[in-house]
Structures are given as C-alpha cells and as structure tokens.
Batch of 2 targets.
Target 1
Amino acid sequence: MHLEYNVEGGDFTRAGYASSQIKKTLKQLNVDATVIKRVVVALYEAEVNIVAHAYRGVIYADINGAGIQLRLADEGPGIADVDMAMKRGFSTASREVREMGFGAGMGLPNISENADNFSIDTIVGKGTTLNIEIKF
Amino acid sequence: MLVKEVVEKLNLKVFSSKEGLDREVKGGYTSDLLSDVMGYSKEGQIWITLQTHKNIMAIATLKDLAAVILVKGFEPEADTLETANSEGIPVLGSDLEAFELSGILFNMLK
Ligand SMILES: Nc1ncnc2c1ncn2[C@@H]1O[C@H](COP(=O)(O)OP(=O)(O)O)[C@@H](O)[C@H]1O
Ligand SMILES: [Mg+2]
C-alpha cells in the first residue's frame, strides 16, 4: 500500500494530520499496537519538523507485510550540522514555536529511538529527506 | 479509576467530550513540551499541561490519552475544543498549579 500526504511549512493547525491518517490505516490493517505506537512517535516528529523548519514537503508511506517505510522529503533550509541536530535539546526553533511547546530538541532523537532504520539526507539551501523504517 | 471520578474528586471543569468521561485512567503525565509528551506519555494517561492550543489534541489523540487537564484556570482555544469533541477526548480544567494537581492525582491513582 502506498500513501502520500502534502505538508505545508508554518501551518501548525494541520500538524499531525498525516500521522493520524497513517495511524488509522495501520489500525485497520491490524498492525501490532506497540509497533503503531513507535510509528506514531517517529512520524509525528518528522511531520512537525517539516511544519516547524521547512517550507513544504511530502510524506510517502509504503506499507507491506514486513513493515512501513516512510520518506519525508521537504523543500527547506536543510540541516547544516546533522550530528548537532541529532543531539537531545538542540533546537533552532523560533521563540513563538517554543512557546507552543514545540522546539524541545527531542524530535530527531525520538525518531531515532523508535525507528529500526533512520537516515537523513540534507542539502543546505535545498531541503531535507528523512527515511524511516519500522518493521512489523 | 474513571475520568469522571477524577473530575468529581478534583472538582474539575469539563470543557468538552462528556462521552469520554467513562474511560479508565491508567496514570498521569505532566509536561508542557509536546515532544516529551509525544515520546514518553502512555496510552490511558491523563495529561496535565498549560498548553491550550489545538496541537495538544493531536497529541492526545495520537497517544490515546484518557483526558487533558489545563492548569491555573487556563481555557482551551475554540479549535482545541472542536478537535476534542470530534475525537471524544475530554478537556478538563483546574485552578490549581501543575505541581499541586499532579501531587493530588498521583496520590489518588497510586
Ligand atoms: N526538516 C528539517 N529542515 C530543516 N531543519 C531541520 C529539519 N528537521 C530538523 N531540523 C533541525 O534540527 C533541529 C533539531 O530537530 P528536532 O530534534 O526535531 O528538535 P526541534 O524540532 O524541537 O527543534 C531543529 O531545531 C532544526 O534546526
Ligand atoms: Mg522537531
């Protein structure tokens, strides 16, 4: 099964929409509840990162009997120092975004903890692509 | 303990989703950082926070939380209530601070 969702940068009112749709799909497919929980955490953080840090992006989800493969490709500023970005607590989020409770710098580390495979491809000034795999 | 018993004992305001009051409460989680709640809260917990915007309902829904309690007299924004009602997750309110409320709830649930 292949699913695609567009995500707009800056639009926090819709943040989490794609995550909830994919969660519903996984439930309908009777995927194990603990696996769904891991997908939800990783996917929500990756979705919010497009909203918080990029201009726009697309979420591609491929689901088969073995697991779910997520690709989140955005047009945005890219990440200059990926090792730094992966550190718990590191965030470049604006003050407004922090006041909403986002920008704790826990997103990428939480994705990494919940994924079986996780990689970041990024080009400064162009955009970022996350590949996240979670096995069933 | 059910959400409605927590509402009665803590004298909470019910802003939304009366149909969710019969749900079992499995614990609590207190935090205003959304990624913290996303990463570490557990299904069936009550979330204590001062955040009032709509994204708290996205998190409560995605994490299957039992209810959200807003502290210090904060009130939910209109679109927060809309989402809460469509998802059936009660948004509750207290005049207490997070520290006091968490302490009382902790003792009630242990
Ligand atoms: N899609 C993205 N595009 C550009 N920068 C990003 C993206 N995702 C993450 N980052 C950078 O990595 C940092 C850490 O991300 P994260 O751990 O999710 O924390 P937070 O989003 O709370 O800042 C961000 O503050 C930002 O600088
Ligand atoms: Mg983030």
Target 2
Amino acid sequence: MFIGKREKRKVLYWLERRLHASPLIELALHKRVPVHKHSVWYYFGGISLLFLMVQIVTGILLMVYYVPELASAHASILKINSGVEFGWFIRSLHSWGANLMIAVVFIHFFSAYFMKAYRKPRELTWLTGVVLLVLCLGFGFTGYLLPWDEVSFFATKIGLDISSKVPVIGDIIATMLRGGTSIGQSTLSRFFTIHVSVLPILLMGLLSVHLAIVQAHGMSEPSDFTKQEDEEKKYEPFFPDFFFKDILVWILAGNLLFALTMLAPWGIGPEADPFAPAPIGIKPEWYFLAMFQFLKLVPPMIGPIEGELFGILVMTIFAGILAAVPFWDTGESKLKSDLATALGVITVLFMVIFSVWGAMS
Amino acid sequence: MSDEEIEIIDGDKKIGRATFVKTAVGGFALLWGGMTLYPVYRYLCPNGEEDASSKIASLDIGKVSDFPAGSGKNFKFGSTPALVIHTTQGDFHAFKAVCTHLGCTVQYRKEKNKIWCACHGGAYDPDSGKNVAGPPPKPLMALKVDIVNDRVIISNA
Ligand code: HEM
Ligand code: FES
C-alpha cells in the first residue's frame, strides 16, 4: 500500500507523542558492534533467543494435547506423535529445540567467559546469564519427565535422589519437587507446573533484565581489540549491518532445527512402570552426562562422607568459582586472568571428556 | 523541629522517628510476608497421605512353579518395588528392589548371577543381598519368603 510521506510523518508524530520512544530509537540506531576475529561469538545470544521463541510457541501448541495425568501422559504424547496432524512435527521441534537451545546457551556462556566479557561493568550481565543457564537446565530436567516413559522416569528418580543427598535442605527440596517419597502423579503435576509456568515467568523476567543491561553497556570488547589504536578499531552499525547478519544466522539455525526435526523425528520409549527394573544402559540427557559420569566414578564413601555428597560438593564449589569469576578476575592481574582462562579450559575439557566417556560406557 | 529531633522515649533508649517508622514498616512487612508465605509453604508440602494399598504386611505372589530355579522376578510390594529370586540351589530370597545407592529399581541377572542395578552398575549378591560391586553403600533390604501350601508368600522381615 502506498502511504504519502506527509501521512507517514503524521502517524509517526502521533505515536511519538504517546510513546516517547525516540530516545530508544536513537539508542538502537547508534548501537554498534566491534569487528574482530572473535566477532562470531556475538551471535550466540541471538540464537538462544531464536530457540527460546521456538520453545515458547511449540510448548504452547503441545499443551493443547498434552495431559499431565499419570494414566494419560504417555498416551497423549503417542497421540501427538501419530494421531494429531503434524503433531510429531511440533513435538520434534520442541524436543530438538530444547537440546539445541541448551547447547547454544552453553556456547554463549563459554564465549562470554573466554572473551572475559564478565568484567566491570558487566558483572550483573554475567550473573543473570548464569541463572538463565540454570533455568534452561531446569526446563530440560522438568520437561524430560513429562512424556512419562521409562527413561524419563528413572532420570527424574536419580536426579531427585542425588539432590536429596545435599545436607539439611536437600531432602526438603527433593520431597517438595517429588510431592512425596516416590515419583508419581504429584511429581508429574509439580514438574508440569514448573515447566510451563514457573520457569517461563522467571526466564522471561530475568531475560528482560539481561537484555536491558546488555543494551545499556553495548557489546563488550575483548582486550586485544581495546589494545588497538583508535583508528584501527573497526565497528559496524547494529542497524542494519549486524541485524541482517543476525537474521541470516537465525535462518541457518532454524534450518538446522528443521533438518534435525525432519531427519530424526523425536521418538518416545515404552511407558514408565514404577515397579519395573531400571532398563539396562539407562543414561540422562547429554547435558547431565558429564555430571552423571563423574558421580559414577566417585567411590561410595570418601572418608566419613558419602561419595555422592562429596561429588556434589566438588562440582558445586567449582561451579561457584566459575559463576563468581567477575569478582576475582577483574582484569587488574595478569595471573588471575590466566587462571580464569585455565579454569575455563579445564571445565570445557572435563565436560567434553566426561560426556563422551559417559555416552560410550 | 526535624524528624530526628522528635524522640520516642523507650526506657533508656531513644529512638528517632525515622528509625521507628522504618522498624515498624520492616516488622509489618515481615509479619505479613510470613503470614502469606507460611500457608503457601504448607500448601506445597506433600500431604503424606499414602493410599491404603501401600501399607501391606504380606503378599501372595503366586505358585512355586511360577518361579523356575535360577530366575528372578520383580513385583510390587505395597508401594515399593520388590524382587524375588529362586536360586539354582532351590532357595527363595526376596528383597526390596530399591538400590541403596540412588534408589533405582534393581533386577536379577542370570548370566552374572547377580542382582544388578542398571543406573550406575551396582551389584548385589543374590543370596544375601549384600552389595558386592559398584557404588551401592549398603546391602538391599531383605523381605521374608514363606512357602505355604505351594504358594510363595512375601512379608516384611
Ligand atoms: C527453554 C525453554 C524450554 C525447554 C528447554 C524445554 C524442554 C522440554 C523437554 C526436554 C521436553 C520433553 C520433550 C519430549 O521428550 O517430548 C519438554 C516437553 C514439554 N514442554 Fe517444554 N521446554 C521449554 C519451554 C517450554 C514452554 C515455554 C512451554 C509452554 C508454555 C513448554 C511446554 C512443554 C510441554 C507441554 C511438554 C510435554 C510434551 C512433550 O514431552 O513432547 N516447554 N520440554
Ligand atoms: S542407583 Fe543403583 S547403582 Fe546407582
């Protein structure tokens, strides 16, 4: 449709009088992105956002047919998979999307870590990011139970039993999540509620904060970029240059998701039977594999403390140190900076090696 | 007079008005918060009601001939998974099939002659339920088996 320049200006003026959005538009137009050899990592936050949108849309669509009730949950997923037109498609998008999203969020996390983007003044961006990662894992853990198949049942059982080993609060938390002492209808109801309402609200709230601070600070610049002479520093405007590249990357990521969905539609195992033995070769989702494998190796007792507890303690302390990195690697000490990098490399190596090992054993 | 000069005399201590208001507001906020949060907490606590079927003392699981020698079978004993094994020597043993490591349900594996937990590869001795390999820290909880009129009766040990 053709709108005259004059009318367009009138509409914009009308909107501006009501929204006062021009400072924001101004900000958006001046947003710029540093160009350097590590620039690719700037895309991963955006890809996470794309996958989140996919999860929200497909999740809402799944809720139309999914029934969070013990006797019907598994059957409702079977129905989605084979009785509802394109049900398999929506479900596979959600399941593959969940996995890709967690992978991308992990990449986003480690790229921020290695570029040292957590340093002043971005400590809160980092911390909100850490919590967002934890929320994503929470999504994965709670969503995994919903199809109520054999593996999901035992994965939840082990996960909750591990958390109940934590002194004092562990048992309370596990019982609250489980809704009792054994996994059953209460667990399914609680996990469903957490998965479809508690986590989405928390995630959206926190994500808004995360994105707002990112805009307030602009993109972080790695140290070899800031070291350059001012004339050598290259930037590109966010609008339209980076924005269009972002869109391109989204299309690529979307294509990957569609390809996986088409080539390997998500399956479902036999219905969970709480009284049947755990199936041979049972494993958690890949993003919990490294932890799983690590706990498997810890002997039952280490001195006076139980092996699990010891393992959880070690991992919690390690994760705590990583999460607190902005407060001990402030950029003033070369030694601490190198230490942070080394710790990150160790973490990545640990995760890769233990995951592969866990997958193979 | 400014706020800080107005004082409320409370024994020996003198409290400025600002402090008083802050404390009162804080106190009420806490009270009110507690008043709403406690019911929410209680609401979310599992109510511990177990259905009647979960509290049983003994259970008839079938004829002796249903359990060939050298085999094991999982069954439901009240609200817990359980396992009965008929050994090659002809003995019956029954255990709660709950792994003492992280609570997975164990099974009898004939080829290894072990009670086996698939979750982290824990193994137990099929005669005594003793933990013999892998992460489990304790033996399985034993159940009592009685053969009455050719029927296998399981009861709490
Ligand atoms: C970060 C975002 C999310 C992640 C990582 C995630 C993850 C998962 C996972 C792993 C499953 C099990 C999939 C399966 O085996 O089929 C699942 C199922 C489900 N999710 Fe999500 N989810 C997310 C967001 C949402 C949202 C926003 C909703 C709805 C508001 C939702 C609704 C559901 C429903 C109804 C199911 C059960 C159907 C099924 O299992 O296929 N999810 N989710
Ligand atoms: S739960 Fe049985 S070995 Fe871990």
